[in-house]
Specification:
- The complex is a heterodimer.
- Chain A has 2 domains: about 15-235, P-loop containing nucleotide triphosphate hydrolases (Rossmann fold), CATH 3.40.50; about 255-305 and about 320-460 and about 485-610, no CATH class.
- In chain A, the strands form 2 sheets. In chain A, strands 1, 2, 3, 4, 5, 6, 8 and 9 form an 8-stranded mixed sheet that branches. A two-stranded antiparallel ribbon of chain A has the order 7-10.
- Chain A starts with 16 loop residues before the first strand and ends with a helix.
- Helices cover about 65% and strands about 10% of the residues of chain A.
- Chain A is built from 27 helices and 11 strands.
- Chain B is an alpha+beta fold.
- Chain B has one domain: SH3 type barrels (Roll), CATH 2.30.30.
- A 5-stranded antiparallel sheet of chain B has the order 4-3-2-1-5.
- The longest helix of chain B is centred in the first third of the chain and has 9 residues, at about 20-30.
- The radius of gyration of chain B is 11 Å and the shape is globular.
- Classes of the chains: A alpha/beta, B alpha+beta.
- The interface between A and B is large, with 43 and 33 residues.
């Protein structure tokens, strides 16, 4: 068996797999960069949003893993980390010295796996600053593996870790757990696999066709007790007062200060992304570069090949062409927005603010059958629904994924659309803005509440670690932004291309006009809008902003404007996000969300028209 | 009593967690039968924040109702 089947990482013959393992936010990436230098590859683990960075250290391969509290299968990060760790040859375990009691659980688990281990005891500066004293030699003696104190961000101790990496040793295992392991070791190939079997890991049990032994809790408890015992022996002097960072953390959590702070932060993000990036930057990338230089070039090439008036020309370089619409949309419009969103999300994540936002919003989201973690795809939805729908993978249960996907598809306007909506509604004044916002909010709340009531099962609870508040490191934030953007582009571009082909097909066969005509009577009779508004709605399937932009050409009363904007917000998301929904969810679920959004859009729009017009 | 009834600043001792999945995850974070922790913050109607030395964990209110505790002071 090989760890890297899913990842497609090439491991040269005879090379060792050096695996970096540690809890979240312990500074693993600094060690990774120090070991591998510049040549680093990133592989996505199929079906997850989890990436594995890998590079070379001499002739050996170094693999990073997502930060986890232990090796098991409680979420995607853990499943991926587990897959890499159990087949690693040498483990470099990065430990946050300040959170020794939390981090040593993983360390002891790695030792129980029977892997050669070296521990980097990181953040020793934080330890000193808090007046804590740790007996490093004693820790090394108890664990039976080398322990090297480091301050990675200042480069302290890194060379020592590099020099001593091959000194990694098998640690001292828990005697009781060793006893359990002896009992099953001939049923599997590796000790790491045996430990996973002991800990009732479903995937491993399935691999070997074994029944669970129901020992996990017992083993975890034994390990936890040993951690507490070790901590009491090696921590000579503990912290004596709450830190300033903890105080900032409470400030973020307390609703009286936390809610205004959250609103202020979101406002800044909106100003930067919604105004600067969506306006100025996209103006340059989409209009000047893509539509000004790129598209004419492509049109020229394809009209020379196929003539300027053939169906082939239109398929490749026409209004909805594969090489015109797709690159302009993905690179010109979406990429700057996606970069900006991931930049802010990484900033929030690395500063420790994101988990606190999740805690703060947990109560509100619980009405809709979601927990605080769902705030992440919801915020991302204001950037791009396609990107946000992919991110729903991080939610705990199937029902949470359905609810979040439905809310995203139905009610959240993406940034492409938001710009046009804001532009149309601003001149109408506060009253109409309020009508728009209230309507969308009511639909959001009702949809969430109803789905929460209707869907069977239970949602998962919020149970998250709140890492210390700290100033994020720019290099880390930029690296995260880049890997996430790259992953999105790789995953989404084929979907947008497929979308362009479908639209070209509908257009060439005149089906597009047929669909528009089908919707025209609803538009005129129910929504009380001009017949042409139906075109705008249908164009919204291609790109949501196309639809919204189509409305600006019509002569509408303020009431009609609000009705049409509400309808287009609720109306089906763009074709790429529909494809993503079909990819992520079952056919039946995706279809229900899709058709549901048609019905909701006309229903809510119709009610609003009845009241207003 | 249960964790949702703890008051901010109280030192508490975990008695039991009545959710199989969370109980196992919680051991890893140092929350298990007999662990001494602190109720370090409470978001009105929302999660309870448990402090364990320098580590903090946010526990959803509904989950807190399934965590049995004793108050030490």
């Amino acid at each position: 068996m090989n760890c890297c089947e899913g990842l497609k990482i090439e491991i040269p013959k005879g090379a060792n797999k050096i695996v970096l393992a540690g809890n979240p936010n312990v500074g693993k990436s600094v060690f990774f960069n120090a070991l591998t230098g510049m040549y680093v590859d990133v592989s996505n683990f199929p079906g997850t949003t989890v990436d594995i960075s890998h590079g070379k250290f001499g002739k050996d391969v170094v693999m990073d893993t997502p930060g986890v509290y232990g090796v098991s299968s409680f979420n995607d990060e853990e499943r991926v980390a587990k897959d890499v760790i159990i087949y690693g040859d040498i483990i470099l375990n990065v430990v946050d010295a300040l959170h020794l009691d939390r981090d040593l659980f993983l360390t002891l688990q790695l030792i129980d796996m029977g892997k050669p281990i070296i521990v980097a005891l990181n953040m020793m500066d934080d330890v000193e600053r808090n007046g804590i004293k740790i007996d490093v030699d004693k820790l090394s003696e108890i664990l039976g593996v080398p322990v090297i104190p480091t301050v990675a961000i200042q480069g302290k101790g890194i060379d020592e870790v590099k020099k001593r990496i091959y000194d990694a040793k098998l640690g001292k295992m828990h005697p009781k757990i060793l006893e359990y392991l002896e009992g099953i070791k001939d049923k599997v190939q590796l000790q790491s696999e045996a430990l996973m079997v002991l800990e009732d890991d479903e995937e491993m049990l399935n691999n070997y066709n074994l029944e669970p032994l129901n020992l996990r809790e017992e083993i975890y408890r034994l390990r936890r007790q040993r951690v507490d015992d070790i901590v009491s022996k090696v921590v000579l002097k503990d912290y004596d007062r709450s830190t300033i960072r903890q105080k900032i953390g409470y400030f973020m959590l307390n609703p009286i200060t936390g809610i205004p702070l959250l609103i202020a932060v979101l406002y800044v993000i909106y100003k930067v992304i919604g105004v600067f990036v969506a306006g100025t930057i996209v103006g340059i990338t989409e209009e000047t570069i893509m539509q000004g230089y790129y598209e004419p070039l492509i049109k020229n090439i394809f009209s020379n090949l196929f003539g300027g008036n053939s169906a082939l020309f239109r398929a490749f370089a026409g209004e909805f062409g594969l090489f015109t619409l797709t690159p302009t949309y993905v690179l010109g419009l979406l990429m700057p927005l996606v970069v900006a969103f991931y930049f802010f999300m990484s900033l929030l994540e690395d500063s420790g603010y994101l988990p606190r936002i999740a805690a703060l919003t947990d109560k509100v989201l619980s009405f809709f059958g979601l927990n605080g973690r769902a705030i992440i795809p919801i915020i991302l939805g204001f950037g791009c629904i396609t990107m946000a729908t992919i991110t729903t993978r991080l939610l705990g249960t199937r029902r949470e994924k359905i609810i979040a996907t439905a809310l995203l598809g139905l009610t959240i306007p993406c940034s492409a659309q938001l710009g046009v909506i804001a532009g149309m509604i601003a001149p109408l004044g506060a009253k109409y803005l309020l009508i728009y916002l209230t309507t969308i909010f009511i639909v959001f709340a009702l949809t969430g509440t109803i789905l929460n009531k209707l869907l069977p099962g239970e949602s998962s609870y919020l149970f998250i670690d709140l890492p210390p508040v700290r100033i994020p490191r720019l290099s880390n934030v930029l690296k995260k932004t880049w890997t996430k953007t790259w992953m999105f582009l790789k995953e989404a571009t084929p979907l947008f291309a497929l979308g362009a082909l479908i639209i070209t097909f509908l257009n060439e066969t005149n089906l597009l006009i047929y669909i528009q005509n089908f919707f025209a009577p609803f538009t005129v009779n129910i929504l009380k809008l001009p017949k042409e508004a139906a075109n705008a709605f249908i164009m919204g399937i291609i790109r949501r902003d196309f639809g919204a932009a189509g409305l600006t050409d019509l002569v509408l009363t303020p009431e009609q404007t609000v009705v049409s904007l509400v309808t287009i917000t609720l109306f089906v998301p763009c074709i790429a996000s529909i494809i993503v929904m079909f990819k992520e969810r079952s056919k039946q679920e995706a279809l229900s969300i899709w058709i549901g959004s048609f019905i909701m859009a006309f229903l809510v729009g119709g009610i609003l028209a009845l009241i207003l017009i | 009593m249960t964790l949702d009834k703890a008051r901010v600043g109280q030192k508490i001792i975990i008695k039991n967690i009545l959710d199989d999945n969370i109980r196992v995850q919680a051991i890893r974070l140092g929350l298990y039968e007999g662990a001494n922790v602190k109720c370090s913050a409470k978001i009105p109607f929302g999660p309870i924040i448990i402090g364990n030395r320098l580590q903090e964990i946010a526990v959803g209110r509904e989950l807190a109702k399934k965590i049995q505790i004793d108050v030490l002071n």
